[in-house]
Amino acid sequence: MLEQPMLDVQATYVPSVIYRPILPSDLDVLEQIHAKLFPIRYEREFFLNVVNGHGIVSWAAVDIGLNSQSDELIGFVTTRVIAAHDSEIEDLLTSDASRKDATLVYILTLGVVERYRNHGIAGSLVREVTKYASSMTNCRAVYLHVIAYNQPAINFYQKMQFKLIRKLHKFYYIKGRHYDAYLFVYYVNGGRSPCSPLDVLSTAATYIKGLLKLLATKLWKKAEKKSPRWSKCKESSTLLLTQNKRIIGSDNTICQCV
Ligand SMILES: CC(C)(COP(=O)(O)OP(=O)(O)OC[C@H]1O[C@@H](n2cnc3c(N)ncnc32)[C@H](O)[C@@H]1OP(=O)(O)O)[C@@H](O)C(=O)NCCC(=O)NCCS
């Protein structure tokens, strides 16, 4: 008799997810999930502020189960609305963002319980945030920091069309060690400066890249005319190496509109 294949419940389970504000009844689970997902410990006060909506705007992803009778917290996003002129990204915004009432939404924490990942849950949570930010006419952007080694989160925010704006050297200090961070921004309500310093940098980088290419071609042609064969190869590989370095450098450059 043929053996029946085992059913992988985990792989076939499709959660019934709803999104709602985080409630006081979520307090303990929210704290437990944060402890599991993040290397930083958050104070009890932070969670109390989240569940009571004190200065923090948040959304929960909840699995309500097949019969809609469950209420299991499986994901969350917590944010704070801040004044644009107090922020570190003021220079990247349209000039009207320096108005007193211009605001930004800063994402404090975002997380999805491991077994619920890659179902688009974080995507839906972040869309709630961008919708909320867009609905406030004085809001100019949503922004956040990601620790430099958190590749899943970096992939995620890039997929969500956030722009990687800059790398912040030693931004985090965790358990006696420094870590770099990336700053991501999602502009809303025309918040992006038409000619931000990044645009200028990016244009300059493209121009210099073109110039170097031209120089490399000229040098190559010159070497081709003058040098014996072995010397020509040496020259070309040096140039190629220099070009590769630039390409790698410019792909990974942090101060670049992505
Ligand atoms: C980052 C995180 C919130 C994504 O949650 P999620 O619900 O799985 O995200 P979604 O399903 O909406 O999107 C998945 C996308 O994110 C990226 N991604 C998510 N998990 C990934 C992983 N383990 N490895 C690589 N990429 C990953 C992929 O680009 C994927 O895109 P795809 O759908 O085209 O494959 C989740 O991995 C998490 O909770 N991580 C721990 C906490 C954290 O790092 N939070 C972010 C910093 S505050």
Automatic annotation (TrEMBL):
It holds the Pfam family Acetyltransf_1. The keyword ATP-binding does not apply. The keyword Acyltransferase applies. Residues 17-189 form the N-acetyltransferase domain. GO terms for biological process: chromosome segregation. It catalyses: L-lysyl-[protein] + acetyl-CoA = N(6)-acetyl-L-lysyl-[protein] + CoA + H(+); N-terminal L-methionyl-[transmembrane protein] + acetyl-CoA = N-terminal N(alpha)-acetyl-L-methionyl-[transmembrane protein] + CoA + H(+). SUPFAM superfamilies: Acyl-CoA N-acyltransferases (Nat). GO terms for molecular function: histone acetyltransferase activity; protein N-terminal-methionine acetyltransferase activity. InterPro entries: Acyl_CoA_acyltransferase (IPR016181), GNAT_dom (IPR000182), NAA60-like (IPR045141). Keywords: Acyltransferase, Chromatin regulator, Chromosome partition, Transferase. One of its GO terms (cellular component) is Golgi membrane. Its EC number is 2.3.1.259, 2.3.1.48. Transmembrane segments: none annotated. Belongs to the acetyltransferase family. NAA60 subfamily. This is N-alpha-acetyltransferase 60. It comes from Dioscorea cayennensis subsp. rotundata.
